[in-house]
Write a structure and sequence with these properties.
mainly alpha
Amino acid sequence: MHPSTARQGAPRLEKALAPGSETATGSGPASIAAIRDALRTGREPPAAQIFARAPSYRWLVVGTVCIGAFMGQVDSSITQLLLPRLESEFDAQLSTVSWVAVAYLLAFGSGAD
């Protein structure tokens, strides 16, 4: 994006996020006001009270991260197991087909998924 284009869109964003505007009303971690404050201060908004009050809140976070890491490992394993099938279906060498797995894992790792 060209810098002048970004500056033209900034006043609209500032107006939408201005205190007292319709979109800035409300409270909680998902409100526009909380997101605006998080962007300005560089701090993450607090967790939703329904989760933060639970005694097992920290374990919920750990469990969620572990499940995400496990799913990433399963995904990459499935991709690796698919390589011989791709090799035979496309009549290509394993070194050529392995680039498909590398490209897929790079795209997955970059968050394009």
